[in-house]
Specification:
By secondary structure, the protein is of the alpha/beta class. It contains 14 helices and 17 strands. It has 2 domains: 147 residues, Rossmann fold (3-Layer(aba) Sandwich); 266 residues, Dihydrodipicolinate Reductase, domain 2 (2-Layer Sandwich).
């Protein structure tokens, strides 16, 4: 798709997209409809992301209007009051007030045409007020809703809220995870939505793909000469992708118990990161070329072996009254994924995620093989590692062996460090939802999950998940605030990971 850039309000950049066939610019007004507007996701993530895009000039008050839709019977001002506290940071009071005036609320059910007819009428009134030419307006529907209502909501939108698109306008939907619970349910959901919308209209959002350091992965891998010859099984011993939280389910026990840590974190967030770490270089930056390479990684995965899986459940998890007393749901999982191709044959990809652990972080840890012919006898100090800290304290650092300062020829492990807080002072790293919503408006699907990619991901995990659901694999109890079950560390050691003892990375400060 061709595109042109222009400077707009507050010195920010705005992207005007053009249709490929006739080069007609998208000049029509933009309507953003937040379905489930009264819920937590909308208040805490969706509306704040929209506000930040507005504040930075990416959403223009003269062309955009925001509609909230939910079953709750409240007024426009009631919705504005509910979300104001999630937007205001003191000095931005005037901007918050301006933004809130762009929001209109419509109440209705998710399976009846009456509410969606009212919604369509409200959107049409906005389009007419903005003098938008029929066929040029743009409608973005954001599903801040449980997946169980996706099919009915899609039908309502298709029947009552579609706009004409003969002059460059469009209708797009953004759906949140979880996309099903296994292969069968995911395929059923995909089929139900696919009957109503074409794939280019569907944006399956995984907010991890919007994180700054995840966005950096392709640049790191394919724009730096010294990574190209090293990024393979000849030099890399193992790769860890880790997600750790230092708190439990915190009131979400009932929801979490339905899915568990594998469905909630590993099958989507961490697997998306793995694809970017392991994929081959795409032929270009075009979204479909990148997504093609991600799918190839998933299709090259070997079945997960039970002996390379350790599950855990923290003590006290079942004290939550919304969690069944006999729950077999894991709150912790460490597993090994293996890619059967020329680049990665024999390299274990260790996926690790857990709640109520001793720290909070998400990172990628690439551990290189031992140096052959080690004349300095420094193997015990640890291997070279390249670490990408996704959150918190975003950073990239390389663990190296260097000479310890002094008169003796002794070695110590240190690092080459790029810590974002120090290197990019004063630069605000955008929230993932900001980036992804903006991509949706621009029509860029690079950071969204394609249907065949979703299917391939579920094919990897569904057999294991069914064995867990049937009670064939049991989680091991672990104490809150620990590293998780000791068996997980034993698994890492068995597949070749060498832990560094005595070295701790400390984010640098000025």
């Amino acid at each position: 798709m061709a595109a042109s850039w222009c400077i707009e309000k507050r010195g920010s950049l705005r992207l005007d997209s053009f249709r490929e066939n006739d080069n007609i610019p998208e000049t029509g007004c933009l309507s953003i409809i937040v379905l489930g507007a009264s819920g937590d996701l909308a208040k805490k993530k969706t509306f704040p992301a929209l506000f930040n895009l507005y504040r930075q000039g990416f959403l223009q008050s003269n062309e955009v209007h925001i509609f909230g839709y939910a079953r709750t019977k409240i007024s426009d001002d009631d919705l504005r009051s509910r979300i104001r506290g999630y937007l205001s940071k003191g000095k931005e009071y005037e901007e918050v007030s301006e933004f809130l005036q762009l929001i209109k609320y419509v109440s209705g059910s998710y399976d009846s045409g009456e509410g969606f007819s009212l919604l369509d009428k409200a959107i049409a009134e906005h389009e007419i007020a903005k003098n938008s030419t029929e066929g040029s307006s743009r409608r973005l529907f954001y599903f801040a809703l449980p997946p169980s209502v996706y099919p009915s909501v899609c039908r309502m939108i298709k029947n009552y809220c579609m706009n004409k698109s003969d002059l460059g306008g469009w209708t797009r939907i953004v759906v949140e995870k979880p996309f099903g619970k296994d292969l069968a349910s995911a395929e059923q959901l995909s089929s139900q939505i696919g009957e109503l919308f074409d794939e280019p209209q569907i944006y399956r959002i995984d907010h991890y793909l919007g994180k700054e350091l995840v966005q950096n992965l392709l640049v790191l891998r394919f724009a730096n000469r010294f990574f190209l010859p090293l990024w393979n099984r000849d030099n890399i011993d193992n790769i860890q992708i880790v997600f750790r939280e230092d708190f439990g389910t915190e009131g979400r026990g009932g929801y979490f118990d339905e899915y568990g840590i594998i469905r909630d974190i590993i099958q989507n967030h961490l697997l998306q990161v793995l694809c970017l770490v392991a994929m081959e270089k795409p032929v270009s930056q075009k979204p479909e070329h990148i997504r093609d390479e991600k799918v190839k990684v998933l299709q090259s995965m070997l079945p997960i072996k039970d002996e390379e899986v350790v599950l855990g459940q923290y003590e006290g998890y079942k004290d939550d009254p919304t969690v069944p007393d006999n729950s077999n749901t894991p709150t912790f999982a460490t597993m090994v994924l293996r890619i059967h191709n020329e680049r990665w044959e024999g390299v274990p990809f260790i996926m690790k995620a857990g709640k109520a652990l001793n720290s909070r972080k998400a990172e990628i840890r690439v551990q290189f093989k031992d140096v052959p012919g080690d004349i300095f006898r420094c193997k015990k100090q640890g291997r070279n590692e390249f670490v990408i800290r996704l959150q918190p304290s975003e950073a990239m650092y390389m663990k190296l062996t260097v000479k310890k300062p002094g008169l003796e020829m002794s070695t110590v492990q240190s690092e080459l460090d790029l810590s974002y807080g120090q290197r990019y002072q004063g630069v605000v790293i955008p929230e993932a939802y900001e980036r992804l919503i903006l991509d949706t408006i621009r029509g860029d699907q690079q950071h969204f999950v394609r249907r065949d990619e979703l299917k391939a991901a579920w094919e990897i995990f569904t057999p294991l998940l069914h064995r867990i659901d049937d009670g064939e694999i049991k989680p091991i109890p672990y104490k809150p605030g620990s590293r998780g079950p000791a068996e997980a560390d034993e698994l890492l050691q068995n597949v070749g990971y060498v832990q560094t003892h005595g070295y701790i990375w400390i984010p640098p400060t000025l």
